[in-house]
């Protein structure tokens, strides 16, 4: 008579061990894809690493800028924006107002 374990009674580590044991028992091994897919994945990871460095540098540069100040009439601008877009929250209004800022202003000065 075969005994089957109650999977719900196993801890996570026990379940992983059980599954890995069964895979090994049946000759299942890790799969390595074809060369074209490996190359594609490699290029994606390298691009991702490069982008991460670029973004980290940009965040550093922006955080070093201490010339960013909120407009003196921000409250009035938010109130006016919300009158035109009553379905939005105040922070969505601030985001929309901030989106209108010239992003190149102060860059490279």
Describe it for me?
With 109 residues, the protein is mainly α. 59% of the residues lie in helices and 0% in strands. It contains 4 helices and no strands. The longest helix is centred in the middle third of the chain and has 29 residues, at 35-63. The mean pLDDT is 88.
Task: Give keywords.
109 residues; mainly alpha; 59% helix; 0% strand
Summarize the structure.
This protein is an all-alpha fold. The chain has four helices and no strands.
Q: Measured on Cα atoms, how large is the radius of gyration?
A: 28 Å
For the report, how would you describe the main beta sheet?
A: none
N-to-C CA distance: 80 Å
Classification by helices and strands = mainly alpha
- Give the overall form: elongated
Query: What proportion of the residues form beta strands (DSSP E)?
Result: under 5%
**Strand count:** 0
Report the mean per-residue pLDDT as an integer. Answer: 88
Helix content: 55-70%
In DSSP terms, counting alpha (H) and pi (I) runs of 4 or more, how many helices? 4
Order of SSEs, N→C?
A: HHHH
Uncertain stretches of 5 or more adjacent residues = none
Topology:
Blueprint: H1 12-25, H2 35-63, H3 74-84, H4 90-99
């Amino acid at each position: 008579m075969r005994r089957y374990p109650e999977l719900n009674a196993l801890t996570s580590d026990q379940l992983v061990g059980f599954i890995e044991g069964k895979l090994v028992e049946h000759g299942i091994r890790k799969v390595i894809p074809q060369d074209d897919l490996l190359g594609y994945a490699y290029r994606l990871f390298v691009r991702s690493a490069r982008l991460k460095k670029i973004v980290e540098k940009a965040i550093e540069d922006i955080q070093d800028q201490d010339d960013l100040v909120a407009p003196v009439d921000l409250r009035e601008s938010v109130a006016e924006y919300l009158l035109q877009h009553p379905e939005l929250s105040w922070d969505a209004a601030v985001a929309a107002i901030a989106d209108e800022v010239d992003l190149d202003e102060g860059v490279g000065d």
